[in-house]
Design brief:
Number of strands: 7
CATH topology: SH3 type barrels
Number of domains: 1
Shape: globular
Number of helices: 2
Order of helices and strands: EEHEEEEEH
Structural class: alpha+beta
Strand content: 25-35%
Largest sheet: 7 strands, antiparallel
CATH architecture: Roll
Radius of gyration: 14 Å
Distance between the termini: 29 Å
Helix content: 10-25%
């Protein structure tokens, strides 16, 4: 993440806080962390960010579409690969999440989970 104020933009592999409201149905709601899938160049140019929401909810321990890893405070976090979102990160007040970038292994597992759903 860029250090200077006003120059920050989410980068691929970053974890960010972002507001998922307004929400409908079974969509994620309120402010949650998100794993960024899109590149910084895309995010800067469009003002949008593509990513996967994250949660600490233990109900995801048995979710076959959740990738688990240890968060910044050594708590279990889950990346939800079955919920792909494209959001306006500027309008939603996105900012860095304490976990920073996820490891290459966690990012690869999340992409593999998404691939198993989309079969691209």
């Amino acid at each position: 993440m860029a250090a200077l104020q006003g120059t920050w933009a989410p980068e691929r592999g970053d974890t960010i806080w972002i507001d998922f409201d307004p929400q409908a149905g079974r969509e994620m709601k309120s402010e949650h962390p998100m794993l960024v899938l899109s590149t910084r160049a895309f995010n800067e140019k469009t003002g949008l960010v593509m990513g996967l929401p994250m949660t600490h909810s233990e109900m995801n321990a048995s979710n076959p579409f959740a990738v688990d890893f240890l968060g910044p405070k050594k708590e279990k976090c889950y990346v939800l690969t079955h919920i792909v979102c494209t959001l306006d990160w500027r309008a939603r007040g996105a900012r860095g999440y304490p976990a920073g970038k996820v490891s290459a292994h966690v990012f690869a597992d999340a992409c593999e989970g998404l691939q198993s759903i989309l079969q691209l």
